[in-house]
Amino acid sequence: MKKINFPITQQQLSSLKTGDRVLASGYLYTARDAAHKRLYELICQGKELPVELAGQTIYYVGAAPAKPGYVIGPCGPTSSYRMDKYAPSLLDLGLKVMIGKGARGEAVIESIKKNGAVYLIAVGGAAALIAKSIKKAELICYEDLGTEAIYRYEVEDMPLIVAIDSEGTNIYER
Question: Which residue among the candidates 36, 38, 96, 104 is catalytic per the annotation?
Answer without folding.
Answer: 36
